[in-house]
Design goal:
Two copies of one chain form a homodimer. Chain A is an all-alpha fold and 139 residues long. Chain A is built from six helices and two strands, in the order ααββαααα. The first copy, chain A, binds a DNA duplex (30 and 30 nucleotides) through helix 2.
Chain lengths: 139, 139
DNA sequence: TATTGACCTTCCAGTAACTGGAGACCCTAT
DNA sequence: ATAGGGTCTCCAGTTACTGGAAGGTCAATA
């Protein structure tokens, strides 16, 4: 299979597939004309990668997961650990964004957003933290 | 003021402050010895940048916000628009992460995480989307 | 005076995970 | 022969820094 077909099947751009080969995540064969020649197992692997990436796993996580997937004897605990660490990262990120959202949302609500120049958003950004009024609490 | 003092005052690493000068966000003077010489207004600007970045505004957002801050005649609507667009980006990101979290959390719960090799996490990643069972719903 | 040590300078490279584009080759159909 | 589409490699750019090397400056000390 050529790279275009695989791109269609896996949903990954051809560019990305070439990149994954560069960094050693897949190793397609080569046809006599130099074109990459993908086996079913390569397509399977790429689809696996696409789904793992969609779940936000890093490339290095994906590399580990692929290894674990290939090793039918490994303990499921190993996989679960990677997933749980990732889950923690996701939770941290959500918490961080939620806090940002709260602060920013307060500011946006406080801003008239009309033709006048007075703007609580800029005022807050320009205010020393210890003198701030709308800024998030210190704990 | 030298860069070290400004770093302490603004909470930004010296490296970052130099970078901000590189990309034109601040323009400190120079002492005769070649050291950067920061005015109060520079410190103020850097603190502004630090707070805007902490709220997740991009550097380009920050550039716009600084311009708007300097322009005392602009309408607050201009600022509010930038903030609202950013708020939308934050909301999208939160939604995306929340969905990831849900899927991943299901998988983690379903995985025994013991010495046995059977692992629903890998099983799901390896499964064609149309044949998946735990994967997120299609709507 | 010489020397330490902390500070400052510039420049280069690397990070994560791609993405875009140039220039050239291959294949099929007309 | 030619047109088109697909493919190849290689290089550069993206975001917002961060680390490190090699070297200049300054204040204090032996």
């Amino acid at each position: 299979m050529n790279i275009g077909d695989v791109a269609d099947l896996s949903g990954l751009p051809a560019k990305t597939i070439r990149y994954y080969e560069d960094i050693g995540l897949v190793e397609p064969l080569r046809s006599s004309n130099g074109y990459r020649s993908f086996r079913q197992s390569d397509v399977h692997k790429l689809a696996f990668l696409g789904r793992a990436r969609a779940l936000g796993f890093t490339i290095e996580d994906c590399r580990s997961l692929l290894k674990l997937y290939a090793d039918t004897d490994r303990a499921s605990a190993e996989v679960k650990q990677i997933a749980e660490e990732h889950l923690d990262r996701i939770d941290s990120k959500i918490a961080e964004l939620t806090e940002m959202r709260a602060t920013l949302s307060h500011l946006v609500d406080a801003c008239a957003g009309d033709h006048r120049p007075d703007c609580p958003i800029l005022a807050d950004l320009a205010t020393e933290p210890n003198a701030g009024s709308i800024s998030k609490a210190s704990g």
